Amino acid sequence: MAEERTFNEQHPIRVFLLDDHEVVRRGLADLLDTEPDIRVVGDADTAAHALARGPALRPDVAVLDIRLPDGDGITVCRELRDRMPELACLMLTSFDDEEALLDAIMAGASGYVLKQIRGSDLVSAVRTVASGQSMLDPATTARLMRSLRAEPAASVPSVPPEVAALSPRERDILALIGEGLTNREIGRRLYLSEKTVKNHISRMLAKLGVQRRVQAAVLASHLDRHGSEGG
Predict the structure, then answer these.
(1) Is the pLDDT higher at 122 or at 111?
(2) DSSP per-residue codes, 42-104
């Protein structure tokens, strides 16, 4: 529902930072605080700290590191946005990771940038997502966004025959992918190691004849519909 929002020196963009490296947090804060229309209102070094502090600070933008010692920025993004639907989350990572990007999109992130980004480009990205627009790197996301926007009904049969080949465990994992959970979250939910979840997902994608989680998520949404119709 993000309409275009405007900010200025009197009404600056309130930014919250999450990164487990103090040097990175300080560098980001120094960079952003030099801009008259941006104010860093707080930071955190762990997922738990971010979830405890973030909502009270009422940021407009959260810049979130994806990989953290006690979790991941994607889960933080999802939970913060549950509490603050207007919050724009900009994911920051050292890895050009398609799966992390897809999980970030499914968690409601507004943007995704690599840590190698130039300072001026990061400032622009913060302003872009604060205004209610998306800031996803076109080169990395073009294929994924095409998949996300694809008409599910046109590409997926109502009850895909490949699903019959899935084991009960694989069906459980498929349903959780449909909810947008990461491998780590699926592992926690099903009491499996992250490596075991990855192995299950690889086999499951092969059985379904798809290559990406988003395609499996589309299948899962159809399964949910048929499951609820059938009782």
Answers:
(1) 122
(2) EEESSHHHHHHHHHHH--SEEEEESEETTEEHHHHHHHHHHH-TT-EEEEEESS--HHHHHHH
**What is the chain's Cα-based Rg?**
19
What is the rounded distance in angstroms from the CA atom of residue 55 to the CA atom of residue 66?
A: 19
Q: Is 59 exposed, middle or buried (0-12, 13-18, 19+ CB in 10 A)?
A: buried
Phi, psi of 164 (to 5 degrees): -60, -25
Given a cut of 90, is residue 53 above it in pLDDT?
yes
Asked if the domains at 13-140 and 150-230 fall in one CATH topology, the answer is no
Q: Where are the domains of the chain?
A: 13-140, 150-230
CATH number of the domain at 13-140, please? 3.40.50.2300
Rounded distance, CA 220 to CA 226, Å? 10
Model confidence at 140: pLDDT above 60: no
Residue-wise pLDDT tens digits, 145-189: 455 545 444 444 444 567 777 888 888 888 888 777 788 889 999
With 50 as the cut, is the pLDDT of residue 49 above it?
yes
- Assigned CATH topology for domain 150-230: Arc Repressor Mutant, subunit A (1.10.10)
Query: Is the confidence at residue 144, as pLDDT, over 80?
Result: no
CA angle in degrees (0–180, nearest 5) for 92-180-51:
55
